[in-house]
Amino acid sequence: MAGVEARLRELGITLPTPPAPVASYVPFVIVGNVVHVSGQVSVDAAGGIKGKLGDAIEVEQGQAAARLCGLNLLAQVKAACGGDLDRVRRVVKLNGFVNVTPDFDPIPQVMNGCSDLMVSVFGDAGRHARSAVGMANLPLNYAVEVDGLFEIA
Prior knowledge:
CATH superfamily: RutC-like
Largest sheet: 5 strands, mixed
Structural class: alpha+beta
Oligomer: single chain
CATH architecture: 2-Layer Sandwich
Number of strands: 5
Number of domains: 1
Number of helices: 3
Shape: globular
Order of helices and strands: HEEHEHEE
Helix content: 25-40%
Radius of gyration: 15 Å
Strand order of the largest sheet: 1-2-5-3-4
Distance between the termini: 10 Å
């Protein structure tokens, strides 16, 4: 898809520095023409969004957390592609994990924060398969974590 960097500028998006792993894993692995990106949490330069959905965090803030995960995914994909996001052909699959209280169920709506970002950036190539599940806890108490598969040229 041509012009991804221009599209990011048009959307007013500046990608963060790709977050470093916090344990024993690598941020991405390339197999053939697919980049497998490790789970990215809802962290940003200000510390990110932590806590449980259904407790102190509502759906809208959860969507913002999922969007942060998406920005971090894009930063990792950009690193995997040697800085060239125009190599991305398709967002294949996103797996979303949402830190929730037992009675919180609008998990798919929370994950739309990440999914909608991918479609905004890549257009139809950003439409993807997806899983969205609620979790009792996430690493470092972040609100959302998302991993993904991206087809590249």
